[in-house]
Amino acid sequence: MEESIRRLQQEIVEFEIQAQADLEAFRLKYTVRKGLIAALFGQLKSVDPADKPRIGQLLNQLKQTADAKLTEAEERLASTESSSSSNKGIDLTLPGRRYFTGSEHPVQKVLGEMKQIFSAMGFGIATGPELELDSYNFDMLNFPPDHPARDMQDTFFVTSGNPGSDVLLRTHTSPVQVRVMLDQKPPIRVICPGKVYRNEAISSRSYCVFHQLEGLYIDKKVSFADLKATIYSFAKQMFGTDVKLRFRPSFFPFTEPSAEVDVTCYLCGGKGCKVCKKSGWLEIMGCGMVHPNVMRNCGIDPEEWSGYAFGMGVDRTVLLRYKIDDIRLLFENDLRMLRQFGA
Ligand code: DAH
After folding, report:
1. Whole-prediction pTM value?
2. Is CB count within 10 Å lower at the N or C end of the chain?
3. In the prediction, which pLDDT does 152 show?
4. Whose CA is nearest to atom 2 of ligand 1?
């Protein structure tokens, strides 16, 4: 008996508990009610009464050794487990993750200002598709078939073959005028901002995609004087109160009469500089009175209604405003550029 106790004591001391599985094996083998220690206690009653106190004491020591070992192992495993799970996959020496705040694109900033000025004057906002029908981009706007005016705008055709139903990338925002007139009854007062596309040689000054903002006002007795007053008010708010305007006669198939509008160069104040090519003027838009044919094409009676329209490029204003010297920078989405326009 004494010998068995000593052997078990030795075994218990040498038992290695390194993982939960070892712990469980140890417990099942030695300390549970049907384990080896309990079995030895069971044999105590058949021990010679004279030896009982000594054997009993040895058994108690054995049990204490086993219990102590179990407790120690439980604590040790619990602590290594919790620290290893909280550290799992985390390298505390790594630098923190940086979050970048998005910012408004400079084109959107300028467009936003333009929209605000016109909405304060009572203009709503209309949009149309960038993939447009040939008929809306040209025919309905009074471009006769095969008329050289179509060559003013180098077109990206998407399909070709059926004149009028061809699909193209719109070359200007004017087809949105058509869509609005087909859709709404006058009075109409909208601006139509958006992207337009032209198959032009790409350079720092021109790109195959750019932005325009179109305006359309149709009501009773709208005159060219109304158009001038609106453009004046816009230009003062956009380019400064000292700005002067110049209306030059021009031609667009969809307006009659037509004009191009220049503002005094807001970089040199009209004295003449590199940007305005020493002229003192910068062209900002085309405009005119909506052609009666366009109204008729859209089901509006030109005897009853009249209106004006204008269309301006947005990108050049962005370039001048922020002193950006290459239009392509506006379309490359280079974060090094865009981050400079953060809030
Ligand atoms: N659509 C013309 C262009 O892209 C600009 C334009 C001129 C628009 C006169 C108009 C307008 O509405 O009346 O060159």
Report:
1. 0.72
2. C
3. 61
4. 311
